[in-house]
Amino acid sequence: MQKFKTSLSFAVAAAVFAAAAPALAADVKLGFIGGFTGPIESLTPPIFAGAELVVEQVNAQGGILDGTLSIVSADGACDATAAAAAADRVINTENVTAVVGALCTGETIGAFNGSGLGAGVVFVSPASSAPALTTLEDNDLVFRTTPSDALQGVKMADLLLARGVNDIAITYVNNDYGKGFADALSAAFTEGGGTVAANVAHEEGKADYRAELGNLVASQNLVILAYANASGQTILRQAVESGNFTTFVGGDGMVGDDLLTGIDAASVEGLIATRAGAPTGESVDLYQQLANEAGIEANATYAPQAYDAAFLLALAIEKNGSGSREGLSQALRDVASAPGEIIRPGEWQKAKELIAAGTDINYEGAGGALDFDEAGDVEGIIVELAVEGGAFVEKGAIE
Questions:
Q1: Please, what are the domains in the chain?
Q2: 169 near 198, Cβ under 8 Å?
């Protein structure tokens, strides 16, 4: 009996000590799913670098939940099936709290439906721009920090009409991104008084698109809505060789150095493109300074939006008070929107202190304000780019 009492006394003492001790630090892991191979492979590394920069800043300024933040990447290959496998690994094997990604819209939908929905994992995509994401049945778990192509299509139409381009031929990659973008552009361009002379889908992965190009010659102004590392580059090269087009236009998926490989730069001088951008202001300037100091390409396509996605998720986890997936969606909405004291890129320590004090915060990021609507979308800004001297040059926001 005495032995039992002694054991009981030790057990009680241990329980009291455990209750009095501070909570142990919690290490937190984020996942990143993106097309490290496939049609956007040249775009993905700088996007990932934007997310990695957040991890470095968080750990340099006190960590997350007083532990360490890490990020593990997986290749979604811009493909729904590959993305589902990638999601299974990061969610069920790596046990991440949340996911930055994916990048292509079909990739994000495949990854989320594959493992994210059942596991209750929040996804924040920096690059999935197709309108299809707006109507995804996601239990308020899928968000994006880039505007929908419903906006990009309208802004591209506005830009072309303002330039005196009154007729266009569109070819788009036959997936959620291509079709959604083409539909938005076609509707806005027609409504603005322009003529869509042809609107033709094409399949990814072909070596020869000359037959498709033959169906597009009703206009000399060719809009290509595809990817720089895949059909977009092949179609542009073969369109230049045909001599049937004088003006070339591309969406965000076309903005990459690889697009111009093997193409005479002079033949595409002045090529017009659009992508998500950012307003001017203190938050954007601060992000660019931090990115430049870290040696990453601050304005690479979707790099600012990836930075915002990772920073928002880190803030939401800190606000949620644990590495649990439960409750993270609401915490994300809380830290992204007014009211609250403004938090800018790099201000992790300030944010931690405010959250610990119970003060509301409102993150304004590298891509601007990020007030999520009911569908998890943001408004955003679309900017114009042009090929000048063999490189893409950003020209400013499209009004």
A1: 28-146+280-369 (3.40.50.2300), 149-278+382-397 (3.40.50.2300)
A2: yes
